[in-house]
Specification:
The chain is an alpha+beta fold. The protein has four helices and 16 strands. Helix 2 packs across helix 4. The termini are far apart. It comes from Exiguobacterium marinum. It holds the Pfam family YycI.
Length: about 270
């Protein structure tokens, strides 16, 4: 045996192994060592904003994309309080319902009373969770859920002359007396989570993304941070939807979605917090 050649091979093998282990170490410690454009580490960013890293929620690093498709909606899906509702559909994908008599809600407890309304009137009501109230439009938004994660989407977008809501939403319209006058609904079906190889951002890294974009200043307060998914607005095709995991972060009265795969940020405008 050529021991000189074998020795050389072993040296290169150990060198390759050391390089690999170093790469793994750098990957594991990246979250605490990342430095922003102004040379501020994530640990410093959290400290300056009074955020305790030990209390931040965790997202599994192997979490993947959520897939699904739009449900074809029809008035026949209304099985509760059906006689009190006049229903039509928009492109067979969006249920649009007018109540024959307005249903009163408690202005001091919109979350509870609106949730009761959804459970008692709206198809698939048990699959939705309260999200936000917008004082300027007097609309309450509910989002569909998947394994306790909310599926967020743009509250409302304009398509031609009609109004389409996000594919995972219920939008409840109130009048000045805080009574429900009508609602719109889209529903996702065939929901399935697809594990990907991509590493997701931690909560600390998502907060750093907001700080680097000046969305989260040291004098502001983080009100909430939760995991979820994000569904883009759709046309009437109802084709397959791919929804990335995200961090939903409330800063003062604003809501930001941070894509947990690529770090992009979406800002959602609301007139007033819940």
């Amino acid at each position: 045996m050529d021991w000189s050649k074998a020795k050389t091979i072993l040296i290169f093998a150990f060198l390759a192994l050391n390089i690999y282990l170093l790469f793994q170490l750098l990957t594991e410690t990246w979250a605490t060592e990342v430095v922003t454009n102004d040379n501020t580490s994530i640990a410093q960013i959290l400290d300056q904003r009074n955020v305790d890293p030990a209390k931040l929620p965790r997202m599994g690093r192997d979490i993947g994309y959520l897939t699904g498709s739009s449900e074809e909606m029809s008035a026949a899906m209304i099985t509760k309080n059906r006689e009190a509702q006049l229903a039509t559909t928009l492109d067979n994908m969006q249920l649009e319902v007018e109540l024959k008599q307005p249903v009163p809600l408690d202005a001091k407890d919109l979350r509870t009373t609106a949730s009761t309304f959804v459970a008692e009137y709206v198809p698939f009501g048990s699959e939705y969770a309260y999200w936000r109230y917008d004082e300027s439009t007097k609309q309450i938004a509910f989002v569909q859920t998947f394994e306790e994660n909310k599926i967020f989407s743009t509250p409302e977008v304009e398509g031609d002359t009609e109004m389409y809501i996000g594919p995972s939403l219920i939008l409840i319209q109130l009048n000045e007396a805080f009574e429900v006058t009508d609602y719109k609904q889209r529903h996702l079906k065939n929901l399935s989570s697809k594990t990907q190889d991509d590493l997701v951002l931690t909560a600390s890294e998502a907060i750093s993304q907001l700080a680097s974009r000046k969305y989260f200043q040291p004098n502001q307060e983080m009100r909430a941070i939760n995991t979820g998914f994000y569904s883009l607005p759709l046309d009437s095709s109802g084709s397959l939807i791919i929804m990335p995991p995200l961090w939903s972060i409330g800063i003062d009265d604003q809501v930001y979605f941070v894509n947990a795969i690529d770090g992009t940020v979406e800002h959602v405008e609301f007139e007033k917090k819940e």
